Amino acid sequence: MGIEPYYLTESKNKCKEQGMDPKTMPKSTKKLSNDQLKQKKATYEEILSIMGFYVMKIIGPLKENYMLIVITDDEGYILDMFGDVSFKSIINNIGITNGVRLCDQEMGTNSVDIALNKKHPVQIIGSGHFHHALHQTACYSVPFYFSESHFLSGTISIMTSIDRHNPYLVPLLSSIVDSIERELLLKKKNDQLNLFHNITINTIRDGVIITNKYGRITEINPFVEDLFNRSKEDLLENSIFDLDPFGKFLYDVLENQTIVQDHKIYFDAQDNKTKICLLDALPIYDDNNELIGSFANIRDITEKYNLEKQVILSEKFSAIGKLAAGLAHEIRNPLTSIMGFTHLLKQKYTEDEADEKYINIISDELTSLNEMVSQFVLMAKPSSPEFRLVDIQSVIQDTVKIMRSQAILKNIAIEEKLLNHEVNLLIDSAQIKQVFINLIQNAIEAMDRNGTIQIIVKQKKDFVIIDVVDEGKGISEKEMNQILNPFFSTKDSGLGLGLSISYRILNNHNAKIDVSSKLGSGTTFTLIFPDVK
């Protein structure tokens, strides 16, 4: 037999000095209450979980071979015990149970206390223990201190019968401790990555969709929930192929492993507003370059797109302004003279029908040209509004009186759906009347004979909303994108300036104009004025 390690001799002498009887196993006076033990186990929960996994892999096949795994905290309190049930019962009967503190002052010489104090692995075989009750056991303890992950320390030990003593159990425990530490560090990094992933995906202002290789949605962020007005729980595990209009692009990514970049998509959102999005999508591969899914990034560029349209429109107005200034100078003066001489010729050649006909044609064309120049001038620099508090409904009624005779010629009725009280707004009544004339004129020209034009006034919160609804042929989506552009007209003889002028007038009134249309069903122009409280 080899020489007994000094720390065992030292511990046994200490037990003798304290008056311990080696034949009688002491009862520990230092034991955790059930609540204290529960709290301790909660602190060590993650470590215990991983330790339990590794321990069961080792002792799983050895459950009938008298082996116990004991895990303690940094003070030697037993947190949990795994292993052979019958051997565990024997150990419990001598006072070694969950919550007991394994220190030499209480329980005599034991591997846990020595391992904690000496900070190195310890094995005690048979008579190496002070108390005779443990002389038929072999105990192996390895301390742990997980400083980089949890800043928790303790021991992991193996207890078995002396006839199953194996010197390789200490390095086995040391290997388990190293594996657990690596696992804890990996889990900590994964938790950090998951936290970073969640922060990133949930705070990014773009939409994110991740699918598996079969097109099932595995992750989305709040942007996508808002976009489709559906919860994350409702969308997860659904097929992306059923999610219009993005499904067909993700199908191509997964089927053909293509990459989609900056593809513009028009998306009908839940609020009946069309959103314009840019889609980027690409396949996802694993370390073996095997396809495992797809990633889609959706950017809402609706505001940017509308702003660009406004900038372009503004630039067009600026160009027209410069053109109009030149036209007014270069054409107006000679045009006035020509119109004057034409009027004189008209008075002179009244007897010859042919001459009179030609002169009337010239006069009409000159009048049209003069009107065009006038519209150019108005586009260049519309007069500043003279704001007065006016009942907008009276302006509508006055305009309808003017336009009703023209509507009657095509057997078209104009209905006014007004509120039963005054709706006062700060407007230039003459300019706003011009807007209504333009809209009603367009409505009449868009309709075949027969039908009804409705003018509807509503008040909502801080706005007054006026709809001009016709039953005409409607406007295509392509035309809708250009309807407010100068010089664009759906009519063969139109100048394409009426709606542009209306837009500028409304813009000067801090009001907005919106249009919705369906081919074959008619068009609705909506004017939105800020209310006066």
The dominant shape is rod-shaped
SS-derived structural category: alpha+beta
Instruction: Write down the Rg.
Output: 45 Å
- Mean pLDDT figure: 82
What is the terminal-to-terminal distance? 103 Å
Number of distinct beta strands: 17
Topology diagram in text:
Elements: H1 6-17, H2 34-43, H3 45-59, E1 67-73, E2 78-83, H4 85-93, H5 104-107, H6 111-118, E3 122-125, E4 137-146, E5 152-161, H7 169-203, E6 207-212, E7 217-220, H8 222-228, H9 232-235, H10 247-256, E8 260-268, E9 274-285, E10 291-300, H11 302-330, H12 332-348, H13 353-380, E11 388-391, H14 392-408, E12 413-417, E13 424-427, H15 429-446, E14 452-460, E15 463-469, H16 477-480, H17 498-508, E16 512-518, E17 522-530
Parallel strand pairs: 12-14
Antiparallel strand pairs: 1-2, 1-5, 3-4, 4-5, 6-7, 6-10, 8-9, 9-10, 11-13, 14-15, 15-17, 16-17
